[in-house]
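Reminder: ligand-aware prediction takes two inputs, not one.
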Amino acid sequence: MISREHKYLFNLARKGMKIAELFNVSGKVAIVTGGSRGIGEMIAAGFLANGVKVYITARKEAALIEKAKELSEMYNGECIPVPCDLSTMEGMDDFVSFVQSKEDHIDYLINNAGASWGEPYAEYSEKGWDKVMDLNVKSIFYLTQKLTPMLAKQASLEDPSRVINIGSIDGLNVPALESYAYGTSKAAVHHLTRVQAKRLVGENILVNAIAPGPYESMMLGAAVNHDYSLIESRNPRKRIGSPEDIAGLVIFLCSRAGAYTVGAIIPSDGGLVGIAGHDLSQS
Ligand SMILES: NC(=O)c1ccc[n+]([C@@H]2O[C@H](COP(=O)([O-])OP(=O)(O)OC[C@H]3O[C@@H](n4cnc5c(N)ncnc54)[C@H](OP(=O)(O)O)[C@@H]3O)[C@@H](O)[C@H]2O)c1
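Here is what comes back for the chain with NAP:
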């Protein structure tokens, strides 16, 4: 028998079966770290197109401000640029102080900003290792920790807040490139997601991770000389990911439709991990 306190959820579900209800995110407030380009820009665009107010961050101020203006105009929405370096505790504190001065709560935190570092094994530098680990892993833990009170503020059993960590298929498969810290950091992101999900679910904050496969971006572009043809030909879907692929998955996770998905690591990779089991170069 369903407990009395949870019965309303089933009534709610029947009322909310239409797509417009089931996938509704409008009126929410989101943060997308690293929203000035690549996957972060795609996620921010998906939110803005559907009525979400979005704060985006990056270090390069001019590009960030320009992107926020472009996205606001394109979607007739509110995209707010906040330049900061999230790889440092000071940078995170400055960012959180700014958001606290503007909002009393946050609905969605998308921990997307990430970095890679490639060097031959024998020369792999501490500088590269720390850069990757500080941004990809440490900043996800501490930024989420610092924003937990704002995420919890309006979160409820019926309408939980969400954290989505952007991992990578390189954290599921072993990458062929000499990016030793990167795959390691992304495997840590996936496990951190489960650890955070366990700690925060009781506060009605649902944490999940997306593990993207190849998407057009400066990071992947630099690794393949901006020629994606080999990657496309070897992908089961014969293409790289598109903005709709990643934005749609994020909207699913943030909407009513995703409210029972917790601590999951969801690949968005055209089937590389699930059916091909290959890394980017071998696939
Ligand atoms: N593209 C892919 O194929 C792919 C595949 C798997 C996973 N991913 C993951 O997806 C996420 C986005 O990657 P992407 O490919 O879109 O990369 P990207 O094009 O290099 O974009 C990275 C974004 O993060 C920002 N950023 C970098 N360092 C930062 C810092 N210290 N503080 C604040 N912002 C910072 C960048 O702006 P600034 O440089 O101005 O700071 C930029 O907005 C990453 O976590 C990446 O690991 C990407």
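The beta strands are 29-32, 53-58, 79-83, 108-111, 161-166, 205-212, 265-268. Residues 33-34, 36-40, 57-60, 85-87, 112-115, 135, 166, 168, 212, 214-215, 217-220 surround NAP (CB under 6 Å). We will return to this case in the review session.
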